[in-house]
Amino acid sequence: MKLNTIAGAVGAAFLSANAAHAATVTLDFEGFPISSDIATSYAGVTFNGGAFRSCGGGCPAPNYGAFAGSLTGSSMSVTFDQLQSQVSFINVSSSSVTANAYDAAHNLIATLSDFSGSSITGPHVLSGFGIRSIEFIRNGGDFGIDNLTFEIGAAVPEPATWAMMIIGFGAVGSIVRTSRRRTAFTAA
What we know:
Blueprint: H1 2-16, E1 23-27, E2 39-42, E3 45-48, E4 51-54, E5 65-69, E6 75-91, E7 97-102, E8 108-115, E9 121-138, E10 143-152, H2 159-187
Antiparallel strand pairs: 1-10, 2-3, 3-6, 4-5, 5-10, 6-9, 6-10, 7-8, 7-9
Helix pairs in contact: 1-2
């Protein structure tokens, strides 16, 4: 009877825990302020070394916005507030570009090299656990990205979820320990 009570309490605790849910965000840069070089944060991302630009029809519709740079050999980057496991984007130029994904300690996780197209290509995907930032290095001409897609929320379980897991493991351990004692007592 006691085991049923403990199991019921553990089940109720797990059902009442509010797990965090991730939301997919796509930044299409439409409605962003058209500007010169920036270091600005939007929706969980910090942008450096580029500018928000109008593409004049060279980016996906409707309003043709992009995060872009124009100096050959220079770079622009995005840094995420939360670690990512997958990030995608569309290349909106014909330039040769390298995209490097780094973790929080700036260790290289993934690379896409020299991807280009006649105008719009992608989505291009960088995958790897713990992506903190992506650096885009232009190997020639103008370059821009659009439809930057990533996750926000639920990167780490909420404290309530951790508490429920600990309570559950404790209850299971208690049940196992109690049954071992009963078995040892019966055998003696």
